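Justification of computing resources. Each target in the renewal requires a structure prediction run like the one illustrated here; the chain below, 391 residues long, is used simply to show the kind of job we budget for.
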Amino acid sequence: MRSRDPNEEHRASTPLELLFDLCFVVAVSQAAAQLHAGLAGDHVRHSIIGYLSVFFAIWWAWLNFTWFASAYDTDDVPYRLLTLLQIAGVLVLASGVRAAFEGNFTTITVGYIVMRLALTAQWLRAAAQDPGGRRTPIRYVAALVVTQTGWILRLSLPASWGYASFVFLVLVEIAGPFWAERRDGMTSWHPEHIAERYGLFTIIVLGECILSAFVAIDTAIGSGGISARLMVIAGAGLVAMFGLWWTYFGLAADEMLRERPHLSWVWGYGHYFLFASIAAMGAGIALVAELAGHHDAQGGRSLSALGQALAISVPVAVALLLLALMRPLLHGSHHSSDLVSYGSAALVITAGALAGEIGLVSSLCLVAAIVVAKVATDIAWPRTSALVTLS
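Resulting structure tokens:
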């Protein structure tokens, strides 16, 4: 297990990596479903906190494997067996999502133990068989052992320490790779491969967005029949999702990752919020479609028109804002057209906030129109001159 060549041509995701990603569909689906159920019951604060916590666990497990595989994927029998063991851990993690929303992270922690036993073995193998880069894998092993021990000990802490201990351990987790790679140089991950892997996970969360919305719409149609209101809501959500897809894949990350690798930390970690917002948008569309189909919300209460509009507009606005921040990061400079991107995020929030005055359907149509206008502006407005060049 030697470091892979970061300049290797035609490097692409392997079938094993695609299988690994596919298993995360289950975990993302579970998280989105629990967010949907919580919002439907008007448990907004609890649902959002639970969702962000669980989605971090899902995303962090995927990120740890992805960057390791980009640098050390040998695709031999030991590597495959250890990766399959990690996949088993992912499925255990997914089975614990529902309990985690209720504050019980025991099952997710067990899933992480399975995954990290396998990942630790991979790093130990890299340390033993790649003498030139031994220190970095050893640091990764130390970081994995320390952080996982912290998560296990957290299970025995009083409930009052729950949020504080979670935030602390998340910060330790995030600092681990930075500490491991900072001193002796970064591992030999492949820029084009990493860009593709992130793009594929974006497709996964977009697919989950479509799936959760479809299930809710199909159920609503089966119960109350097709209505103009339901179709307009579904169409507005679909158009907004298309706009996010168009914007994300209009950004080329591989050049930045190759020429300015120090920015990979911001870009890679920033995707947590992007992935979480897109999946949350799917939960919001499903919620609004369910209520539009005259289904009773869980717990006998339902969100107001304003709450429903914000369940879609807030995730869309967050995604647009993050994509707006990524563009100059990737392309190396700010352009005047970036103001449109930032403005579109603010306008989407405003459109959602107007639902109480203009109605839910009009609000969501306005959100979709803003996203379409933003994409059209990106296409029509060439970026020929830089306002600020990033180093």
